[in-house]
Amino acid sequence: AHTAPPIPRCMLAPPLCVLLASVVSGRATISRVGVRSRPPIAGDGGPAPTSENAVLAEGAAEAEDGAMLLVRMQCPTSVDGHYWSELLVDAGALFVSLSDGGRGTDAEQPIYHAHPPGESSAQLLERLPAETTPGHLTPVWSNTQLEVGFAPDVDVEATLLLAAAVAGETPPRFEVELLGARDWVSQVQSDWAPVELAGCLRILFPWHADSAGEGSGGALPPALQLQPGMAFGTGEHATTQLCVRGVHSLLAGGRLAGCDAMLDFGSGSGVVAFAALLFGCRRAVGVEIDPYALKVSRANAIDNGMADRFVAVLPAEEAPEEYELVVANILARTLVQLQPTLSSRVAAGGTLLLSGIWGEAQAAEVEAAFAPDFEGFERSWQDGWVVISARRRR
User: Fold this and answer.
1) Where does the secretion signal sit in this chain (predicted)?
2) Beta strand pairing status for 283-287 and 385-392?
C-alpha cells in the first residue's frame, strides 16, 4: 500500500477541504482528515444522523486504537488513478493502493513511461505530471482498483461524494470493511519475509537480522538489504529470480567469471546489478526511466557498501559503452523496440539476458528480433515467465 505521488495543486481547484467546509454542517466536521460523523449537539439545530451515519459514529466510538476502515472501489473510469488518490489523501485517507483490475488475466495492462532520446532528467520530471490535467484525465488502467484506508470515525460515503464532486464524476460504488486494531508496522513487516533465490542470494529488509553463517541446509548464500515496495525488484517476481539465477551461473565460476562491467537496463531497485557485484563483477551500471527508482537504487547501493561500484542513470545520461554482460528485464514489446540499443551495448562474444517475457509467443517474438546479432539462444522458465540468454556474434 502506498500514498499517491504528489500532483500539481492546480488540479485540486477548488481544494477539497474548502469544498467540504462549504457544504457540510450540523453533524459533521471537516479538515484534512475527512468527513467525520458525530451525534447532533443538543440545541444546535442540526439534523439527526441517518441510520448509516449513526452506525458509523457508534462504531467509531467503540473502535480500538489501531482500527481502521478498509474501503474497496473502482476508480471512476475517466479519472486518472493518481488524481483520484490525491483527492482521497487530501480528504483524509491514511493510504491509497492502486492495482490493475485485470492483473493475472489476458486483460492485464502493463504500463511504463517512454523516455525519448535526448530528454534530460529535469524534462522528464516536468513532463510526467503534465500528462494528467483536469481536462485530460487518462486512467492508469482501464479498470483501476483501489484499496483505501480511513480512520474508523470517517463518513466514507460523504467523503467519496465530495471527492467525486471535485473530480466532476459520479461517486463510485464501494464496500467497507472494519479492520480490528493491530500493530500495522509489525503486520507489514511480517508480510515481508526474507527472500532466497535458488540458493545463490538472500534478499533481506531492514528489520531482518542478517544471520550470517550456517543455515538448515549449510552455509547461507550472500545477502542484499533492500527497502521493500519502493521500486520494482525485491526478489519476489519470477523475472527477477530468473535474471539473478542467470547472472549467478555466468559470473560465479561461469564463463564470465571476473567480468569487468555489466549493464542492467531497466534496473529498478538495482537488485540484479547488486547481485552481479556480489557474484564477482567489478562494476555495474543501471539504466532506468523512473527518476524515483534511480534514487532508491542509489540508496540501496550505499546501504550495501556498493556506491563506489554502481552508477544509476536515465537513458539520456548513459555513456554508450560495450559490456561483457547486459541484462534487460522490462516487457517483451519494449525489448523488441530497444533491440538496436541493447544489441549495441553487448561486446562481441558477450552475453545478453532478456526477461519480462511471458509465454512461448512472446519468447519467439523477442528471439526473432535479436537473431540477426546473436546466437546460442537458451531459455529458462519459471511460472510462465522466461529469461532468454544469447551470445553476441563476433
Assistant:
1) 1-26
2) unpaired
**What angle (nearest 5°) sits at the alpha carbon of residue 150, between those of residues 146 and 153?**
145
Q: Which residue's entry shows cell 481544494?
A: 15
Q: What is the pLDDT of residue 127?
A: 54
Q: What are the cell numbers at 38? A: 458525530
Cell numbers of 285, please?
A: 551500471
In sequence order, what are the beta bridge partners of 353?
327, 389
> Dmax over Cα atoms in the chain, in whole Å?
89
Nearest to 162 by CA among 98, 95, 93, 94: 93
Distances (CA, A) of 354 to 301, 339, 374: 23, 11, 12
Q: Are 267 and 356 in contact (CB under 8 A)?
A: no
Which amino acid is present at 102? G
Catalogue the E-assigned strands of 216-295. Answer: 218-219, 223-225, 261-265, 283-287
Domains and CATH numbers, the chain: 9-182 (no CATH), 189-392 (3.40.50.150)
In terms of Cα–Cα distance, which of 299, 309, 311, 239 is closest to 269? 299
The model scores a pTM over 0.70: no
Residue type, 286: G
Asked if residues 293 and 232 have their Cβ atoms less than 8 Å apart, the reply is yes
| Rounded CA separation 50/38 (Å) | 11
pLDDT at residue 31 in the model: 35
Chain centroid to CA 381: 23
> Measured between alpha carbons, how far is residue 210 from residues 195, 202, 204, 236 in Å?
12, 10, 7, 18
What residues in the chain have per-residue pLDDT under 70?
Answer: 1-66, 110-140, 184-185, 188, 210-218, 228-232
pLDDT above 90: percentage of residues in the chain: 45
Q: Give the span between the Cα atoms of 245 and 330, in whole angstroms.
A: 17
Element at 19 (helix H, strand E): helix 16-23
Q: What confidence score (pLDDT) does residue 77 get?
A: 75
